[in-house]
Amino acid sequence: MKCIVGLGNPGKKYEMTRHNVGFLAIDRLADKHGIKLDEAKFKALIGTGRINGERVVLVKPLTYMNLSGESVRPILDYYKIEIDDLLVIYDDLDMVPGKLRFRPKGSAGGHNGIKSLIQHLGTQDFKRLKLGIGRPPHPIKVVDWVLMNYRKEDMPELNDTLDQAVSAATDFVDTEWIALMNRYN
Q1: Which residues fall in a coiled-coil region (predicted)?
Q2: Of 125, 91, 90, nearest to 107 (Cα)?
């Protein structure tokens, strides 16, 4: 079984913010594969189903970004999912909007959601799909930028990014890791 987690913050207020691009990707992935995100447990919204014939659990932690690990660790334990079968989708300030990149492991790089996952999983060796949101233009502060809603003019690029993320996450389920990185990076 695979576990695909999208990071974000719960609630209408954050729904269309840059920091929630992981949630947006999970929603689109669930829609594409007919998986309902309708179970609330382990401080998360969860949906189980099949992608490319493989059992998957899709997860949107409802703990707020900075505590994401509190939700993900118990889910992996409950479903008996190995760290190697986990994919985390989240925003990346250091990549231009529209760009995505798979990474096999790494530090938190200043991302508090990833920092929480590393703390609760006890390792930084888990797979990631980073979606570029870019750095804020001067004089906007980073904290304001990530919590700022996407503008109407950003929507075509956002939709393209989410479509790419859905394709990449779908392929994650049954594609060898090196081939996956070569295809999407």
Answers
A1: none
A2: 125
111 classed as catalytic: no
DSSP state for residue 12 in the 8-state scheme? G
Give the pLDDT band (50/70/90) at residue 167.
Answer: very high
- Contact (Cβ atoms closer than 8 angstroms) between residue 177 and residue 104: yes
Q: Is the Cβ–Cβ distance between 34 and 91 less than 8 Å?
A: no
90 is in an annotated binding site: no
DSSP 18-87: GGGHHHHHHHHHHHHTT----EEETTEEEEEEEETTEEEEEEEE-S-GGGTHHHHHHHHHHHT--GGGEE
39's tokens: 């179970």
Q: What is the pLDDT of residue 148?
A: 95
- The pLDDT-based confidence of 141 (bands split at 50, 70, 90) is very high
Predicted pLDDT at 88: 98
Query: Is the CB of residue 6 less than 8 Å from the CB of residue 15?
Result: no
Is residue 20 within 8 Å of 74, Cβ to Cβ?
A: no
Q: Is 66 annotated as contributing to ligand binding?
A: yes
Does the annotation list 14 as a binding residue?
yes
pTM score, two decimals? Answer: 0.97
pLDDT at 174: 96
